[in-house]
Amino acid sequence: MTSSYCVIPKVITLGQGTAEPIPLTRLVLYEQIAREFFGGNCGVRAGAAMLTIYLSVEQIVRGKAGLIREPIRKVPEPADCSGTIVIVDLTVNEPSRVSEDVLVHVSEAIGEMVSQPPEKHVIIMLPIQVDGSEMWSRLERWSFDQGSVTVLTDDGTVVRLNPDGSRPDVAQRSAQYLGLMSEYAENSLPDRFAAKVVRHVGHYHFGSSDNGEPAKSQCSRFFFDASFAVVEATELLCQRLDLLNLAGENRTLLTYSRLSPWLEKVAAAAAIQLGMTPAKLSSIDSPNPSELAGLTGRRVVVLVDVVNTYGTVTNLIRLLRDRGISVEETIISVFGIQTTRTLRVNGGRYQVFCLHEVDREPSPQGPGCGRCAAEQEHVHPLLDRYPGIRAYDFWEIMFDFDWEPERYGPADLPKFASAPNFVRIFREYGDWLAYKIDKMLATIGVPASASDEIVYVCPDEAAMHELMKRLKARRGGRPVAVHIPRPVLDDLASSDTVDREALPQSDWRRQIELLADRLTDDGAPAESGVVVLDEFSASGQTARTMVRILRALGISPLAYLSIANRGALMRSILGVPARSLYDLPSQGRPVP
Amino acid sequence: MTGPVEHQPFSGYDPEDPLAACRALAHHLTTQMALPRDQDPERLIALITDYAGRAQFVATDRPALDRKVIDALAPRQDLVSVTNGAVGTTESAEAVSQPGGLSRVEPKNPIMRADISISTALPEELDAVLHVFGVDPGQYHQHGRRQRRYYQTSISALRPKRELSVIITDAYRSGGIDATQEMADLDRYYDPMTRFFIGIAAGHPDHLNIGDIVVPDWVYYYEPGRVTDQAIQGRYRPTEASRDLIGNMRYYRPNRPEYRASVLRFLQYVAANQEFSELPTSFVPRIIMRNLVIASGEKTIRSRAFMDELYDYHNDAKAVDQESYAFGYYNNGQRWAVIRTISDHGDSEESSASDTLKFAASGLGALFLRDFLENVYSLREVPPATDG
Lengths: 592, 388
Description:
A: flat, B: twelve-stranded mixed β-sheet, two-stranded antiparallel ribbon, about 30% helix
């Protein structure tokens, strides 16, 4: 008879503000891994709590990593299956966050769990290799007569511990495990890079010459910014330089950029990894002699932030060649309008590779540019401090997608006959709106550093799920979303108070309670980084209900923020600072 | 502090200059009203209200801006009513004869040029496609003499880096080999750039399993033949799917976790909403895009011998349906492909698929199409992939 196993996932997230639901794709992966190592029918136990187990940075730093022991240890009794497979997954974290302290607590919790009846099989998935780790000696303290412990590391090594807790003499490698992990990887490197790039919307100069003046009198609608993707850009660059055999001690990685300060960081990090020398050129028109002198006798690999007309990069190559500097035939640009293009400069042939293809949507300056026709000022990408959305940009986006009848909103209030389709808007412009949300939060005192571990509380609606994807991707997956179902919001909409006891027991409530239960060292409640978020506010009823629910569960939100506000101009909701990225006046109510 | 909250200044940043904002709003109003398209009145009201709310803070240029807004709203003469109160440009179309009695209508001024059309034949097929594409079955446009229903939606496509407009319709009747009017209407009103036909088919029992998704290079019309006293000698007519589209589709890899999760979610939905589902929730469909043709004809086949005969005579005719040929023939020269999911084996009366299975099978095909459009679909011609 075929064995059937209940698979119980324990996903540990490090550096998050609270727990969150485990994605469905992850559950499919766990079933496949369980099947790979144990055979038979393996299914995730239906109805089990499917929240991650989390540790905030503060908890890790203050030595409270032991808090994860209890939730790891807790395993429900098996039902309708012949065995239990517990999968403890740490691979959702960046390797640097998986500290020795965390590994020790995970090992202790697993040892205790497996040594107790009934029989359990544990698979530990790690994003690192752990040869010299303390975790092995911790696991050796336990005996595993009733079950088994298997450790899987990022290189595919499979260590199935002996029943006495010791390591076997020979470890196996599993290509199948690596294949599954690659197949179910959340994002490839180019995807992760793309997710962190911000495509700013505005009225930008395009094809500017070295002295800052518009060279070809062109405007562009988008400006691409990789400030938040330095790590990913570095990794992509290293891969490309390695592939093209351009790494090595005798080479200099030369950057030139006027509007991308992040490029120097990328070049410095890549140069260190590949044994190259980083250098920069501040100007092509008036080159700094000392900068050029440092390049003499070196093989120079040119790295630029963006290529559009190829004019700047052509001028740069010409300058270097005229000064007798040896330029590699391969030029790298982080952004570009096409993947590769060949340039002929002073008789030399150069291949320009770009790491990420983009379209800045250029148009000739003047009547051919909509923003010029509407007499809109140009925006300097590095000096623009406006945290909201400007009227031109807002309505351009509003006309990008058809509006449709309002589907969400309080049940007892009439719905708009037509409202923006925020699902599509967030898919197309979510990166920029997520950036704007951070900027707007900064105006009410939420620092950018706090945004990494922030918890967004919002209605459980398709558009907010879409926006949350972008907010998470931008911060390496660390912000957490708590989605409150619309029926819950509707039930409580008409009451001025929310009774904690009347709130349903569910994942979203547990997420908030876990946050509220956090204590500081002296036992006082820790300050929560909770922001209430919605796509659209009109009556303010949904916002007030969400704030009341949070307060009933012991949380004081930092702010309420909506993308567009079509109701009364609000500066606070029940005492919580309120902002909107765009205030759309309702009849009789003026804006600004 | 007392007084209306509205008048408190923003803290931390200055609001947008009202003059710049009003110039932007007047410009958008002018631009939008000049377009030959239906305007959403709610959106226009919101835009005008936005203007009115900000204009009162404009110190200079206010009269000129107001004039621009009023001019933008003046009625235009070149718009006429077409159907159901929708406003579009004057419709006209010319029929272009094609061999075989089918004719294609060259569209002039369609209501919109759709990027993608998805045609279906059976009600279960339409329901499944609407479900997968998240379209409300109650929201549709009706056009033409027969008041055919057209469902509009759009999806975000990774490679063209934009939204693709999608029209879904049940333009075919089951078994309808002659669907000229249905396709002509689709052409006339939406002139789709790329056309897909989704639904179910019977699969040869030795070659295809229930739930397999097939994308044929060719569709053969198997009915014509020469009848002698000794035998019926087939004279099948082939029609070839667009090579560049099929080449593009072969770049699709079905092992994406999101696709697998969407299949799981869909089959869970089917299991939860139907009394009985033949496809378990753990099912992962095969997608077959090489060495396969579909034989298409008016017959409803419930005979193993006939399935064998079709396979032997029309090499690689592993799947059989009743509608694909008309679709392919009509769209000859256009960008089109057929996606069929095997729902029975056509080998006996008992093999007929239940309505649930028809829905589930069509949904699997639609999930594949959706994932392909979102992640791989290219508007450009691509070289064929080296391996399936």
